[in-house]
Design goal:
By secondary structure, the protein is mainly α. The chain has helices at 3-22, 28-39, 42-51, 72-79, 89-103; strands spanning 56-61, 64-68. It contains five helices and two strands.
């Protein structure tokens, strides 16, 4: 690999780290994005969100929606959702998620 390519990658990685470190996660979606940026594993992100007390709406029980734990498919759905304007980390995370899925043979 040429030194110029290495320098370019270092700048890209540093930009990614800077975006990650300045990212303020105030919602479950933002927390999932930030955790995936750190962990690169939807199952681990789901576990961490569950530990933090985040839940999703489940089935209707006695006239009210049950609150159920998140699973990896829920995290994948969150990460593949529409990108909010001004969110710099979500597009990067979405690219990483889809690249990781292609490596595992899951075409999106």
């Amino acid at each position: 690999m040429k030194i110029e390519e290495i320098k370019k990658r270092i700048k890209e990685y540093q930009n990614y780290v800077d975006i990650y470190e300045s990212y303020e996660a105030t919602t479950m979606k933002q927390m999932a994005i930030k955790l995936y940026a750190e962990l690169n594993n939807v199952n681990q992100v789901a576990n961490q969100l569950n530990e933090k007390g985040y839940r999703k709406d489940g089935k209707l029980v006695a006239g009210e929606r049950a609150r159920v734990k998140l699973i990896s498919n829920d995290v994948t759905e969150i990460l593949n959702s529409d990108i909010e304007e001004g969110d710099l980390l979500h597009p990067e995370v979405k690219k990483i998620l889809n690249r990781n899925r292609r490596r595992k043979g899951i075409v999106f």
